[in-house]
């Protein structure tokens, strides 16, 4: 019986509280302001309309606005576009069933908006055309249920009766029986159309012949003679008439009945919401009414006006228009305040916060909520004191009493002390537990706050358990237990964490204390969840059970920082954590062990920081977090989340600020006040969102309707109305934008989309990302689908779709594949045909190929033969030429004319033969790709004059007039000196050869510029012209062929008959120089060879065979075409210099001693003069010596692994190290080891202890001695290896090296690499060996031996300098002279003169 009474009492309280809350919630309605800050074009709203797609339209004084809940598109006049709206002042909007909008403007006539094409059709009044509207000032546009368009202007009523194919609209002007302006047009449910004018109401009657008559409704004296501003209908089908004197109801069924006056306040605009509340717009805000019980009178519920301190109030009081959309949301258009949106069915989260009222809540940051046994609500704030809301004020939440002595109320609890109800208070700003007399606090103005318990830290949680024991949790001070004794006072015990006791409480930060239905007490701490079993509660040293997270155990608690604890009616305990989400503790059941089930943000929880937990009457768990409220259904384990868009005080709630009232209502405190609500009143909006595809972009550019992209129109109508889209292959990167038309809380709407044929799964996005982006989509057919949900997760059942076809490029079309197929078949047929033909010709082709290969092989053999024989000719030619030179210059034959004449003939032919041999060799180099050119920027006129100087003697001798001319004083050009010298000499030799006595040979040097395809090239032109027999046309065609000669009796006999390679070689050389040569000839008159060479260096760049050298480069005086040997020497020297740079500049001393102190001492003493290397035994020393090749080695005799004697023996027996001086150190006093060391080649011996100065001197003397030997090698012309070596192994090494160089003395290609191979040493070791023995690098050693042999030949033979040059491996006189002078301080010819002078002096 007692249980039933309690249930009935709770039920009644719940119903009363719900009614009170609903009433209060109505007065707490929030208005959402939509102004120019959100994109509205202007703040004066004249009209509002929702089209059949769901978009909202607003008419303003600055254009027409379209709104989708997220952004605005607005339309204003464009003087350059006749398809734009005609006026900025939009006064009225209506829509037909075809989706067109009809817009009436003030002064701009009527506009029809075709939403598919996004174009406006303008309709103006034309004075001379009676089929147009009668005025451009439109008052009302109305579309009836027959899709007829009625247009009321300031002069009358117009009916649209036809629209021509050209788009011209035909209107019929109706005659009015009165001279009044139409204010409103309305069609009731029966189809009757009503017109209201000033003080008049008319019913439109259509006659049988299609005519229209206005029937005046005689309502007097029912309705006073006043302005009618509104016509509508109530839910019973009665006509509502809004006037300046109130609202009247007229029965349409019983028209003879009088109109009832149900509201006396002026009515400017009116809507009836889905709960039959009347919302009335006035010049002073919005009024909300409901019908009384009898339904005969409107009773005022609320008045909504502008409040400057409340952003959720009406934006302006002057209301122009009210409009209810399809979902029941009311839109309010104001004058100067933009649009206001209010949802009468919005979730009833009552929001209570501090206001300007002195009796409002004291502070908005809530830390504690508590309902005492008398039904009063206590609210602790963080910084604003303690608030008391008496039971009588619950529901209004407007009259709070404040206690400022408690600045930060963090914990509240009620106890009874001495038969008085006391409120226990934990103040976060003070230490200790305080109490307040509840009854005194309600009835007396100044109630004292008394200290009940002193604590070391602030009190954060309080619990009075089932046995009236008080548990006090502190921040970092542990927990206090207060057990009441017989005296009426408390025995206090304190429990803190003891790391040494695993049964102590887990942490001293106590955030919350909770007792479950079994009597167990749970403690939320900063490091784990602690529990006291009921039988442990009064123990002197109770044993706590501790739960902590375990990363290896998924059934452990998720986080160690615990916040709220709540026991569900099922017996499960829910635990909130500070970052680890929500935990559900499942006690042991049916043999299953206890466990925790974790719920995170990824599982649907609003946020992983849980602040409070409560249970509603249906068993749902409500959780406050940092991101709103979550409602958890334990049966299906799903979450439903709510945020600030649903009416919450803020998304962030405060720690442990949650309370379930005795009425069943829930309260949650946050940073902006608190919310109170009845869970049964929080219902989902079941109306789905309407999904629209709103924009389409290609490569991030929005595609406009009718705009041409790449010669095609992509959109011929708005994308929202397109079902299919064709795209070109280069339009395959696109973005599809979409919107969800549901205005309750648009920011909570969600979207999911999929491009079938591309996306495998549906992609979910939020309202902040209302677009799908695709790039580089392959050609083919695709279908894009998108659907949206409303703010409560109700999804659109029919997604919007758009099929897309991306055309392939031409080469991937079916036609292209057809062509490919035909082409393939054709190829196969042709292959078959020509295979047969080929089979018959194959043998012939093989024969032709064989013949060709034989010719090429023969040509190759001929060239190889000429080349080989030319090489063989050079040596005997040298031996022939040398004696001839001697005969011509010898005193014994100088006066013998016969000998001189014959010798001159022999010399001339020898020189010619030598030149021919050299040309053959150069010719082979060009053919084999071994020719190299080095070009420099040089003055070319003087260069050619220098080459022509020797020909002046021939010209004079043969009576030929020879001239070199140029119109330019100077021409700088880039060319290879040697190449141009050979070209010029060949052409001059040819010219003189065929010029008779008395003839002329002329060289003209010119500049020429050619332009091809905007590219200008400068050339130097060299013309070699001679008079004579000329060249026939047949000969001109073959003149540049190899081995082509033609006998001619008229040629100059002073020149030998050619071998046929001169001009061929010249042409190849010019081509190699990127130039051209041609010949012009008039028989028996003149012949001209014209050579054109590029003047600029750009013509030679990026050609591997051509090097470009500047003036300052060191080899400037050396002509590249003669410098194979020089290049070899240069490469050798570069490699040697790299080896040299890698070695230390100081002499390298290797110290080998097993005593580290001795090594350190020697290193410190000699470190400035030597680079000191260290080794601890002979084996290590040998390894370092082989690797580093030191200049000198200092070694101990007695050492582990390998002693000094063995080390010295190995070093002196290796070619690589035999030259290295070795000084031995020993502690032995006998001479035996010294003798043994000296026998095997040791260079010195010192006994320990030694004087460091003597050691320095000995080392220095040995190195100086070696330097002296090196200088001797370089200074002496004739020298035997034993004269500069210390060991027999070094002597053998040097002899072998000299023999190898002697063997290859005449080989110009001999270099260091060949020497390395024959010597059997590495390149670096050979370099070091030569450097230590001779002071020369490897390349310098070869050159030194050759130059010494050259000196010997100059002194001991009668060979000319040039012959000796060839005999010693040099092939250019300039390089030979350069090296000779560097070695001996004078040129070879000067050395010869010196020898002759010495011999002459000796003979005297």
From TrEMBL:
It comes from Seonamhaeicola algicola. Residues 868-1097 form the Histidine kinase domain. Residues 1148-1263 form the Response regulatory domain. The modification 4-aspartylphosphate is found at residue 1196. Keywords: ATP-binding, Kinase, Nucleotide-binding, Phosphoprotein, Transcription, Transcription regulation, Transferase, Two-component regulatory system. The keyword Plastid does not apply. It comes from the Bacteria. It catalyses: ATP + protein L-histidine = ADP + protein N-phospho-L-histidine. The lineage of its organism: Bacteria, Pseudomonadati, Bacteroidota, Flavobacteriia, Flavobacteriales. Its EC number is 2.7.13.3. This is histidine kinase. One of its GO terms (molecular function) is phosphorelay sensor kinase activity. It holds the Pfam family Response_reg. The keyword Nucleotide-binding applies. Gene3D superfamilies: 1.10.287.130, 3.40.50.2300, Histidine kinase-like ATPase, C-terminal domain, Homeodomain-like, Immunoglobulins, YVTN repeat-like/Quinoprotein amine dehydrogenase. Residues 1295-1394 form the HTH araC/xylS-type domain.
């Amino acid at each position: 019986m007692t249980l039933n009474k309690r249930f009935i009492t709770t039920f009644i309280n719940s119903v009363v509280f719900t009614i009170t809350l609903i009433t209060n919630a109505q007065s707490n309605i929030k208005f959402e302001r939509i102004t120019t800050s959100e994109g509205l074009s202007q703040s004066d709203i004249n009209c509002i309309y929702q089209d059949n797609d769901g978009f909202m339209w607003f008419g303003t004084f600055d254009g027409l606005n379209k709104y989708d809940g997220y952004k605005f598109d607005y339309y204003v006049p464009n003087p350059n576009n006749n398809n734009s709206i005609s006026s900025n002042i939009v006064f009225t909007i209506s829509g037909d069933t075809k989706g067109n909008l009809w817009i009436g403007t003030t002064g701009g006539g009527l506009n029809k908006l075709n939403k598919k094409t996004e174009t406006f059709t303008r309709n103006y009044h034309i004075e001379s055309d009676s089929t147009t509207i009668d005025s451009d000032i439109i008052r009302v546009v109305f579309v009836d249920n027959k899709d007829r368009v009625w247009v009321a202007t300031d002069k009358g009523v117009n009916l649209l009766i036809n629209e021509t194919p050209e788009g011209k609209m035909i209107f019929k002007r109706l005659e009015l029986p009165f001279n009044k302006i139409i204010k409103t047009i309305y069609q009731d449910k029966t189809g009757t159309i009503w017109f209201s004018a000033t003080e008049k109401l008319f019913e439109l009657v259509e006659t049988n012949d299609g005519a229209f008559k206005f029937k005046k409704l005689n309502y007097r004296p029912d309705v006073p003679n006043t302005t009618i501003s509104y016509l509508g209908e109530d839910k019973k089908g009665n006509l509502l008439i809004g006037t300046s004197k109130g609202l009247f109801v007229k029965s349409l069924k019983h028209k003879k009945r009088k109109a009832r006056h149900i509201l006396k306040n002026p009515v400017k605009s009116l809507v009836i919401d889905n709960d039959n509340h009347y919302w009335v717009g006035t010049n002073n805000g919005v009024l909300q009414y409901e019908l009384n019980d009898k339904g005969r009178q409107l009773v005022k519920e609320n008045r909504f006006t502008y409040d400057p301190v409340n952003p959720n109030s009406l934006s302006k009081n002057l209301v122009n228009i009210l409009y209810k959309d399809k979902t029941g949301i009311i839109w309010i258009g104001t004058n100067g305040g933009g649009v206001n949106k209010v949802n009468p069915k919005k979730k009833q989260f009552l929001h209570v916060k501090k206001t300007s009222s002195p009796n409002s809540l004291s502070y908005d940051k809530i830390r504690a909520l508590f309902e005492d046994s008398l039904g009063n609500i206590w609210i602790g704030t963080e910084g604003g004191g303690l608030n008391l809301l008496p039971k009588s004020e619950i529901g209004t939440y407007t009259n709070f009493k404040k206690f400022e002595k408690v600045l930060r109320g963090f914990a509240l609890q009620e106890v009874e002390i001495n038969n008085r109800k006391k409120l226990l208070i934990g103040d976060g700003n003070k230490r200790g537990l305080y109490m307040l007399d509840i009854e005194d606090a309600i009835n007396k103005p100044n109630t004292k706050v008394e200290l009940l318990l002193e604590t070391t830290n602030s009190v954060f949680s309080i619990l009075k358990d089932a046995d009236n024991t008080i548990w006090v949790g502190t921040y970092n001070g542990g927990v206090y237990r207060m057990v009441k004794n017989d005296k009426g006072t408390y025995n206090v015990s304190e429990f803190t964490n003891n790391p040494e006791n695993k049964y102590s409480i887990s942490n001293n930060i106590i955030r919350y204390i909770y007792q479950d239905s079994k009597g167990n007490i749970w403690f939320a701490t900063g490091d784990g969840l602690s529990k006291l079993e009921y039988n442990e509660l009064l123990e002197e040293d109770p044993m706590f059970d501790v739960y902590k997270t375990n990363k290896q155990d998924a059934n452990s608690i998720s986080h160690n920082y615990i916040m709220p604890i709540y026991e569900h009616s099922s017996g499960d305990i829910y635990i909130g954590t500070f970052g680890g989400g929500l935990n559900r503790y499942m006690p042991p059941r049916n043999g299953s062990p206890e466990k925790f089930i974790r719920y995170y943000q990824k599982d649907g929880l609003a946020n992983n920081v849980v602040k409070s937990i409560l249970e509603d009457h249906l068993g749902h768990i409500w959780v406050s977090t940092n991101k709103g409220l979550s409602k958890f259904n334990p049966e299906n384990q799903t979450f439903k989340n709510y945020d600030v868009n649903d009416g919450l005080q803020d998304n962030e709630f405060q720690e442990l600020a949650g309370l379930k009232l005795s009425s069943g209502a829930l309260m949650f405190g946050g940073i902006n006040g608190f919310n109170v609500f009845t869970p049964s009143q929080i219902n989902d909006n079941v109306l789905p969102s309407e999904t629209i595809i709103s924009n389409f972009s290609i490569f991030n550019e929005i595609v406009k309707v009718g705009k041409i992209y790449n010669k095609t129109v992509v959109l011929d109508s708005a994308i929202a109305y397109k079902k299919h889209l064709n795209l070109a292959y280069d339009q395959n990167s696109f973005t599809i934008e979409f919107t969800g038309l549901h205005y309750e809380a648009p920011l909570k709407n969600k979207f999911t989309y999929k491009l079938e044929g591309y996306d495998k799964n549906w992609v979910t996005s939020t309202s902040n990302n209302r677009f799908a982006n695709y790039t580089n989509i392959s050609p083919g057919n695709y279908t894009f689908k998108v659907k949206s949900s409303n703010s409560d997760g109700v999804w659109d059942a029919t997604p919007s779709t758009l099929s897309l076809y991306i055309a392939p490029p031409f080469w991937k079309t079916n036609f292209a594949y057809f062509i490919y197929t035909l082409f393939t078949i054709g190829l196969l047929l042709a292959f078959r045909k020509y295979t047969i033909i080929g089979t018959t010709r194959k043998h012939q082709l093989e024969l032709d190929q064989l013949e060709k290969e034989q010719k090429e092989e023969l040509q190759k053999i001929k060239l190889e033969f000429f080349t080989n024989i030319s090489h063989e000719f050079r040596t005997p030619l040298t031996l022939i030429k040398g004696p001839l030179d001697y005969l011509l210059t010898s005193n014994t034959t100088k006066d013998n004319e016969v000998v001189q004449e014959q010798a001159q003939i022999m010399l001339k032919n020898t020189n010619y033969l030598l030149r021919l041999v050299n040309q053959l060799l150069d010719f082979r180099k060009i053919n084999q790709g071994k020719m190299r050119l080095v070009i420099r920027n040089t003055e070319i006129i003087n260069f050619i004059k220098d080459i022509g100087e020797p020909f002046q003697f021939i010209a004079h001798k043969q009576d030929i007039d020879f001239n070199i001319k140029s119109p330019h004083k100077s021409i700088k050009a880039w060319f290879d000196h040697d190449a141009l010298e050979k070209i010029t000499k060949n052409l001059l030799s040819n010219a003189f050869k065929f010029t008779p006595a008395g003839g002329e040979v002329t060289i003209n040097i010119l500049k020429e510029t050619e332009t091809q395809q905007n590219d200008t090239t400068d050339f130097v032109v060299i013309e070699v012209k001679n008079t004579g027999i000329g060249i026939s046309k047949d000969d001109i065609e073959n003149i540049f062929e190899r081995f082509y000669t033609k006998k001619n009796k008229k040629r100059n006999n002073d020149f030998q008959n050619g071998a046929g390679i001169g001009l061929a070689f010249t042409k190849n050389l010019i081509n190699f120089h990127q130039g051209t040569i041609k010949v012009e000839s008039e028989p028996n008159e003149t012949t001209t060879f014209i050579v054109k060479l590029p003047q600029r260096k750009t013509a030679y760049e990026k050609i591997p065979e051509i090097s470009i050298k500047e003036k300052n480069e060191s080899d400037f005086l050396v002509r590249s075409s003669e410098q194979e040997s020089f290049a070899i020497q240069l490469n050798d020297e570069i490699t040697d210099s790299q080896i040299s740079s890698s070695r230390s500049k100081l002499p390298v001393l290797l110290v080998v001693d097993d005593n580290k102190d001795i090594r350190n001492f020697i290193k410190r003493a000699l470190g400035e003069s030597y680079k000191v290397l260290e080794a601890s035994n002979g084996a290590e020393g040998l390894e370092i010596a082989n690797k580093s090749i030191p200049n000198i080695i200092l070694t101990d005799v007695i050492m582990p692994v390998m002693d000094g004697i063995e080390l010295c023996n190995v070093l002196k027996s290796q070619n690589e190290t035999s030259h290295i001086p070795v000084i031995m150190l020993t502690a032995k006093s006998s001479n035996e080891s010294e003798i043994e060391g000296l026998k095997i080649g040791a260079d010195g011996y010192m006994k320990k202890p030694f004087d460091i100065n003597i050691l320095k001197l000995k080392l220095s003397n040995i190195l100086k001695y070696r330097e002296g030997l090196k200088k001797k090698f370089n200074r002496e012309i004739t020298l035997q290896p034993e004269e500069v070596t210390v060991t027999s192994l070094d002597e053998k090494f040097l002899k072998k090296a000299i023999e190898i160089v002697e063997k290859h003395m005449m080989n110009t290609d001999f270099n260091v690499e060949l020497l390395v191979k024959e010597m059997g040493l590495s390149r670096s070791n050979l370099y070091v060996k030569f450097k230590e023995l001779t002071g020369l690098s490897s390349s310098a050693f070869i050159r030194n031996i050759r130059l010494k042999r050259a000196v010997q030949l100059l002194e001991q033979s009668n060979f000319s300098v040039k012959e000796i040059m060839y005999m010693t491996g040099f092939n250019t006189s300039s390089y030979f002279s350069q090296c000779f002078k560097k070695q001996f301080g004078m040129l070879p010819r000067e050395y010869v003169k010196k020898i002759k002078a010495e011999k002459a002096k000796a003979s005297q």
